[in-house]
Amino acid sequence: MPEAHQYDLTLFGASGRTGIDILNQATDRGLKVLAIDHSMPDEPEARKGIEHRTADVLEDDLAPLVADSAAVISALGVAFSPKTAIDPPPLYSKGTGRIIAAMKEAGRDRLCVISAAFAAERANLPLWFEQTVVRALGSILEDMREMEEALRSSSLNWTAARPGWLLDRPRTQSYHVSTENLPDGAFRTRHGDLAHFLIECALHGDHGKSAPFLARRESKPDESPAALGKETLSMIGLA
User: Fold this and answer.
1) Is 184 inside a domain boundary?
2) Would residue 1 count as lying in a domain?
3) What would the pLDDT profile of 14-68 be if each residue is shown by its tens digit?
4) Domain range spanning residue 74?
């Protein structure tokens, strides 16, 4: 008989852009989620099946937060700024390492995390994008690589989703998944599609012990250097 769990998912980084999409989709699917953030939302929306708690993934005891869940999703992310581009907090490497340790302590096995296509040694990217955006993210991507190495060294059944450059558009569920590289001609991934992929992997065990790429071809305006430049400036508060 399958083991009974109080929650379907524990979600770290629930208030981030992808985390919010995960909660919305989980609510639509009737899932029970323990939503973890560094601080409690100012006005947490009362939604059936969602329970909010606070924790510092770099300092607190995380084992009690994963012990009663069938699977764990980490939507932790580092907000891009000139400071974090140079010296990012170790949310990916140390934070995920502490989640791995907590899951081992609690006897939990299924972990899905967000990495990035650009953390791969070779990504199918436009040259201009590699020479601009990817270079600017160098320190953050190195922390992601350390995270992926920690996952590979663990005994957990893990999945590290490698989306393309994230795009704030509605979910389509028509994204492409590849184990080798970003699909040809596609280097953008919608937050909603990434959320859908993570939930599916967590619930059904898809893509275990692997780091699959996912993206879809978007309209030319969304994939242009001008669009990417505007989004980057917006992230650092200059647009």
Assistant:
1) yes
2) no
3) 999 999 999 999 999 999 999 999 987 776 666 889 999 999 999 999 999 999 9
4) 7-235
CA distances from 110 to 96, 132, 155, 170 (A): 13, 35, 10, 27
Structure token pair of residue 200: 């599916």
- Here the CATH number for the domain that contains residue 91 is 3.40.50.720
Could you give the number of structural domains in the chain?
Answer: 1
pTM: 0.89
